[in-house]
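Postdoc handover notes: sequence design on the structure in folder B. Input tokens:
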């Protein structure tokens, strides 16, 4: 059931080493409030292709849209929303907000403190056309500390076992066009205990985008450990755009 004719559809886009089931609590809460909510399956293959895949899906929706991206999903929503007038707001949950020609690796080199680099385990693969690629996994023994330090250990172990592979091509990619956060209103949930994207790097990106920032004492998966904070920020964005629209 939609709340009203102009209530936005909320599309949640996961990042690396995760899938849309991580948004379970947010989806339930948003649906309970009457919002049409979609957990989008991010391919995690390369930024241009992943964003194009999301952009095509968004064109099948009617009415206003609020896009929510966690981690690498932030870069995907920033690119997919370009030129789509239905997208009213962008919400980042510990999200990447790279600019044109700027990679995640470049930003991580500027802001110390990430535990992701030493935790990555590369796994080579062969594409159908015979070309070679590399998938990146987080080592199971390092997963909780680097990614989900404030999540129950048993749950973190399941998350580590079920992690989706993240292609090295996606990690190294840079936006090729001005991202949508330059023109759309943004909200940002900043995890102050994040060991994947250092908090000061999150702050740099969010402030550069003039985002409304809410801090929460959470790891990189704030949407798992602090779902109420994530839900409230999404609602804030959705309600603000409903008033503005």
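Designed sequence:
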């Amino acid at each position: 059931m939609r709340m009203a004719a102009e209530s936005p559809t909320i599309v949640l886009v996961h990042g690396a080493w995760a899938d849309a089931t991580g948004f379970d609590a947010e989806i339930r809460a948003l649906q309970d409030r009457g919002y049409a909510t979609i957990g989008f399956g991010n391919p995690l293959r390369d930024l241009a292709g992943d964003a194009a895949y999301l952009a095509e899906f968004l064109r099948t929706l009617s009415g206003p849209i609020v896009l929510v991206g966690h981690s690498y999903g932030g870069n995907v929503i920033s690119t997919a929303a370009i030129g789509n007038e239905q997208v009213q707001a962008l919400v980042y949950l510990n999200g990447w907000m790279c600019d044109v020609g700027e990679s995640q690796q470049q930003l991580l080199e500027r802001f110390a403190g990430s535990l992701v680099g030493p935790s990555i385990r590369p796994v080579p693969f062969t594409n159908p056309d015979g070309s070679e690629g590399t998938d990146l996994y987080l080592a199971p023994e390092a997963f909780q500390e680097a990614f989900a330090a404030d999540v129950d250990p048993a749950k973190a172990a399941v998350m580590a076992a079920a992690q989706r592979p993240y292609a090295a091509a996606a990690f190294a990619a840079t936006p090729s066009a001005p991202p949508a956060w330059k023109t759309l209103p943004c909200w940002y949930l900043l995890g102050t205990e994040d060991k994947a994207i250092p908090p000061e790097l999150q702050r740099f990106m969010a402030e550069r985008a003039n985002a409304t920032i809410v801090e929460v004492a959470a790891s990189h998966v704030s949407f798992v450990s602090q779902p109420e904070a994530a839900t409230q920020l999404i609602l804030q964005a959705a309600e603000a755009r409903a008033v503005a629209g």
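Context for whoever picks this up: Confidence is low (pLDDT under 50) at residues 1-5. Don't rerun without checking with the PI first.
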